[in-house]
Design the sequence.
């Protein structure tokens, strides 16, 4: 029971994160693109909402599918090298500690 509750909560968090991240991304990217293309101010809101309506599902699915993979790649690229450093330099560290 607890395991299924945790899985359900993890899925909810993943869906909410993807929804929020895609909305923020579409908002940040969409507006400057419209401004760059000199969209008249009277049409700006409608065009912006239209572009978000089209691009948001693509961003949402991309974040939902690609983000877990990117997190694994990031963890692989940015490893904690503390243990490897200690093992590689164990003799030097021991000599410093023992005063030799």
Sequence:
């Amino acid at each position: 029971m607890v395991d299924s509750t945790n899985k359900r909560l993890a899925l909810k968090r993943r869906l909410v994160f993807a929804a929020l991240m895609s909305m923020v991304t579409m908002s940040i990217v969409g507006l400057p693109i419209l401004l760059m293309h000199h969209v008249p101010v009277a049409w700006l809101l409608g065009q912006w909402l239209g572009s978000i309506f089209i691009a948001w599902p693509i961003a949402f699915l991309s974040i939902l599918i690609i983000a877990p993979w990117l997190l694994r790649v990031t963890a692989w690229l940015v490893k904690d090298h503390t243990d490897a450093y200690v093992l590689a330099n164990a003799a030097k560290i021991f000599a410093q500690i023992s005063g030799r």
Notes: The chain has one domain: 2-98. The radius of gyration is 24 Å.
